[in-house]
Specification:
The complex is a heterodimer of chains A (97) and B (492). Helices cover 34% and strands 4% of the residues of chain A. With 97 residues, chain A is mostly helical. In chain A, strands 1-2 form a two-stranded antiparallel ribbon. The radius of gyration of chain A is 23 Å and the shape is flat. Chain B is globular. Classes of the chains: A mainly alpha (97), B alpha/beta (492).
Amino acid sequence: MSVDLDNVKKIAKLSKISLKESEGKKFLTDLNQIIGWVDQLTEVNTEEVAPTFSSFGADEGIKKRNDTVNDGGYREDVISNAPKSDEGFFLVPKVID
Amino acid sequence: MANLTELCLYEARDGLKNKSFSTKDLILDHIDAMESSRYLNAFITETPDLALKSADLSDDNYSNNTNRPLEGLPLGIKDMFCTKGVLTTASSKMLSNFIPPYESTVTNNLWNNGAILLGKLNNDEFAMGSSNETSFFGSVINPWKKNDKQAELVPGGSSGGSAASVAAKIGVGSLGTDTGGSIRQPASFTGTVGLKPTYGRCSRWGIIAFASSLDQAGPITRNVRDNAILLNSMCSHDPKDTTSSSKEIPDFESSLGKSIKGLKVGIPKEFYQDGMSDEIIKMWNNGKDWLKSAGAEIIDISLPNTKYALPCYYIIAPAEASSNLARYDGVRFGHSINSNDINEMYELTRSDGFGDEVKRRIMIGTYVLSSGYYDAYYLKAQKVRSLISKDYNDAFSKVDVILTPSTPNSAFELNEKCDDPLSMYLNDVFTVPINLAGLPAISIPSSKDKNGLPLGLQLIGKPFDEETLYSFANIIEESSNFESLDDIWWLK
């Protein structure tokens, strides 16, 4: 499969990355090169093969823990890296008119 | 007294224990080495004041005989590990102002064992790269040069600063992370020992996430013994990472010197590549001979799906990255660009904060996860991953370890592969399958190419059998007589 410039713009939009026109063309070339290369996986017969989402837990399993509060109360720490904050809240541009 | 940076981790440990010198002496020499080696650009943040303060505490602990396993030993930490109160950037503009209010589990374990932070090490942006050239803070320079002493070379990546600093004897060891070869490939390029532990051996909590099902922390050191010592202090079961193992943690150092007599070494035929250099083949053959002399049996094996590992990885890793990096929105932390419209704020922030390689991977990941392509790419890759894992499971029913080269070539020149993403990706052809299968693997410096540059052998082990890897690695190390770097040209 391959992508065209409109596809690249759509992918960028979904990725929340704005692209200049010249960047779009550069990524179009790169993406098509990479997509063309990963397409070789179509050669592999994967009928009746189950997907592996993680290599962990084959013998010990993912552990559950009790859903209890055991830490917290760091409001100032949590907010300390915020580009904009006010009275312990993150500030964002207005989203509802 | 000779410069204390000449001492490796266990020598420095023993010297401190015997009170041959103080922690402060050791730290001062390492700070001096760090500051006089800035040309290599290995460190993004230096923490000399913190280190000296910690040295006082360590010296007290030695006086009171309350010293811990890594008491007073200076380490560099890849800038992917969150360190409380110390700038942590992932080598990205996006996090160029990020000061974590918490400490990663692995580094916390090291500090609890007495180790001392020397500084934060440069890497490829968000650990995406194989040459350390995608860093927002500039390329790291490999301390090794060819015999002609001309061109400057890349240290490999993404843990380029971690490997370069250890090769240059700044710190007694360092931490890296390895998602597709990011510890083993730079270790091979710099003549250092780098281990990627089994997935789940070390907690990922507090490590800036790239591809969560593949990421693992691991040590880079001057020799195998140092590596085993450092790994022991890194591992723990961590309730904050549900994929961290609760298996017992053995004493890795004691696996050095164990006999490998009668153990079986697999040589996968698929790792012989068209156009592979004679030097790599010769090194591989030497490795086989050394292990045979030590009593191991060499067996030819097949890992039939090897050629699909890289394309499989370049679907799965970007898919996970596109999801993990969605958090960089300019709202809660990091770089941010103002706008009155929230979507525009996201787009401008991410467009300005991420470099090209990161954008490429986010877009590839978004594409393979998008409606209509999910089954054809993402799900397909996860199925191929099962076949790759099965290859290794089958092989390990016949052998105890697998021996391969770590990389298809030695260190290359700066800017040589920057403009061609695919040729850069091919650097990881021997390391990537191991992450997909979640196995442990170690790179050991084994020989030099015709230009005098280091080449590494890779040993791959069964899940949670790092001990056998260390036993074998120790034999390769003793047999190879690899001479470490002796030309400190960057100080001149």
